[in-house]
């Protein structure tokens, strides 16, 4: 009799193991973490806490110190607004709160759940330790923040042109 053993040999994976695999897979889909190996992704997954939000719930609010986390959307859709105007819709694989990983400044946008929203949240102090141990992540974060800054400059320039 031939027995085909799965990834875990003869033992069945626990719910915690299945959840951790799922988080690792979801983190691996995030562009910011695309260069990480499986060991690094597992390390990062252990830092993440799952949070769920009902439709209409404000996850973070512009201008407030509403938390110290970096959010990765695992399921659902959220609206991102600046100065009360929607600027984007985000979904699985998208993330927000990058600035909270570096600065403890007020949030620069409001993020509101449009549908049921499931996120992985990483506290800035945990991410900072992880980034120190994985400099390639720090570099990717720096590149991402530079892109955000360029996009913000472009948005402001267009708004100024529209007013003038």
Main features:
single chain, 164 residues, alpha+beta, Jelly Rolls, 4-stranded antiparallel β-sheet, 5 helices, 24% strand, globular
Question: Could you please describe the fold and organization of this structure?
Answer:
By secondary structure, the chain is of the alpha+beta class. It has a single domain (15-163), classed as Sandwich (Jelly Rolls). The chain has 5 helices and 8 strands. It has helices at 15-28, 38-47, 98-102, 124-133, 135-163, and strands at residues 49-53, 58-60, 69-75, 78-82, 85-90, 95-96, 110-113, 117-123. It has a 4-stranded antiparallel beta sheet with strand order 1-8-3-6. Strand 4 (78-82) and strand 5 (85-90) form a beta hairpin. Helix 1 (15-28) crosses helix 2. It starts with 14 loop residues before the first helix and ends with a helix. The relative contact order is 0.17.
């Amino acid at each position: 009799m031939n027995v085909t053993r799965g990834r875990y040999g003869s033992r069945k994976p626990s719910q915690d193991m299945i959840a951790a695999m799922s988080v690792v897979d979801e983190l691996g889909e995030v562009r910011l973490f695309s260069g990480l190996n499986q060991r690094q992704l597992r390390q990062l997954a252990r830092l993440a806490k799952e949070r769920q939000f009902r439709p209409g719930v404000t996850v973070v609010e512009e201008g407030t110190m509403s938390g110290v986390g970096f959010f990765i959307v695992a399921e659902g859709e959220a609206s991102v607004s600046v100065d009360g105007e929607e600027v984007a819709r985000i979904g699985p694989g998208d993330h927000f709160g990058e600035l909270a990983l570096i600065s403890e400044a007020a949030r620069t946008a409001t993020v509101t759940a449009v549908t049921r929203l499931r996120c992985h949240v990483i506290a800035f102090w945990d991410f900072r330790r992880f980034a120190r141990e994985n400099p390639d992540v720090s570099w990717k974060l720096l590149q991402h923040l530079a892109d955000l800054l360029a996009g913000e400059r472009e948005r402001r320039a267009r708004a100024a042109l529209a007013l003038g």
